[in-house]
């Protein structure tokens, strides 16, 4: 029997989450390195169309894991269904995107199978017959190569943007789709989820901004936000922030960039006093140019910056505003 | 309500971290603080107790230095503390940490267990959910609000990109708490004084050893990330740096 790599794509309310293509790309890369067989699965109720969509990619097989109890999503039902499936269809590694939904059920699923999940992975290596997964630690200041022990399967969740969705290989012909009906007995699902909603209509759509000036903890006090606003105005850009700033109420929540806020890819992202925690980076690393001003020379934001200034933002921003105004005439 | 809050001591946010000689962990001679989401978890537990009465118990796993986190929590109003005290706890993976915690609280009867949604050091975001599975309890993650209702609780889960969802669930349950769910309080002088007399139960590794197995994940190597970008560092006095940066914005980034 060959070893199986299983990618579980993510669907929410019957729609494929596009980040799943990144996970398929990761699976294809691991399959190419190891020679193992890549299969995919979708979990839900009436999600056959998604299975068909995935079957067009270069995968050996797609499973459509079905139960009426899988809609709406609950950690109990998803965990139960995948445990049942994996018991009958053992896999060596199971790959998923590191989304809030996956974070909600994978640790439970892995524990129910007495195995583990390597979470928030950004890369992998196949070294002397051993798979190593690279993940960030200490808020991105270090990375670790992590190996897996035990009988498996090893669950791996990938950070958004670690593999490219547009590199996913199409299959020569459509892969076979097998529908697997799972039984989720009454009593398994304990949580009763209500409708998904948005707090308020977002006033600003930062995804459309060409220039974003973003502030982090380094701004120190609420009154200093004004300085960043002046820079944003001079540049003709929008003001944004990392999570702690919005948690403090210094800027409204709809100005937040990162995993729990907006994901942006402007022409210029100017980060003031932002250290660059993973949760922030995933929301802005697609920017075409990143300028970082931070007093800590080891801040992880500098890893992804195109232009870096190590120094006190309160010294640098005032002359910067003047120079920008001059340049604009 | 009887609530357990699992807290962790992590290196301070701007502490300069250095690798140990083996390149498998950091050098431990840094300053530590409480993991930020755990502080919010504690605050939420104290608020729930103020609303519904009950007891707040705080727990941590780590060497002697980690006791500081418990003392601070007691000073803020927690009733008692449990310290799984051993340097070896730092090296456990999430599964084993949860198993050790479960073993340490086996004689307790909590209605709720709170953890922060993830730690700033490992960043697993798993221990709370694993603990729920071990206890056989339901769980919900990334929680921004908790209300008691007839059948148990109604919680507000944060989803991605500004979405939320209310979930009704029975008790007992495990919740992982998001930063910003509330406003943190400071310890009062009288609180700090009282903390010294509050009960703190120590649990040794030996006591929970039977519940813990071999780690299923191992850090083979810890290192500074390789730069994927050619970062250009602009240096000089502020006025000069400002000029240089504007040149770049004009000629290379082309936004001016």
Q: Could you say which overall geometry of chain A the principal axes of the C-alpha atoms support?
A: elongated
- Helical proportion of chain A? 25-40%
Q: Supply the CATH class of the largest domain in chain B.
A: Alpha Beta
Q: Report the biggest beta sheet of chain A as strand number plus sense, adding barrel if it closes.
A: 9 strands, mixed
Q: Compute the gyration radius of chain B: what is it?
A: 21 Å
Order of helices and strands of chain A: EEEHEHEHEHEEEEEEEHEHEHEHEH
Distance between the termini of chain A: 71 Å
The total of beta strands of chain B comes to: 13
Report the β-strand fraction of chain B as a percent range. Answer: 25-35%
CATH topology of the largest domain in chain B: Rossmann fold
> Approximately how much helix is present in the residues of chain B?
25-40%
Q: Give start-end ranges of low-pLDDT stretches of chain A.
A: none
Q: From the alpha carbons, calculate the radius of gyration of chain A and give it in angstroms.
A: 22 Å
Strand order of the largest sheet of chain A: 9-8-7-10-6-1-4-5-11
What is the averaged pLDDT score of chain A? Answer: 93
User: Strand order within the widest sheet of chain B?
Assistant: 9-8-7-10-6-1-4-5-11
* Alpha carbon gap, first and last residue of chain B: 59 Å
Q: What is the CATH class name of the largest domain in chain A?
A: Alpha Beta
Indicate the structural class of chain A. Answer: alpha/beta
* Oligomeric state of shown chains: heterodimer
The CATH topology of the largest domain in chain A turns out to be: Rossmann fold
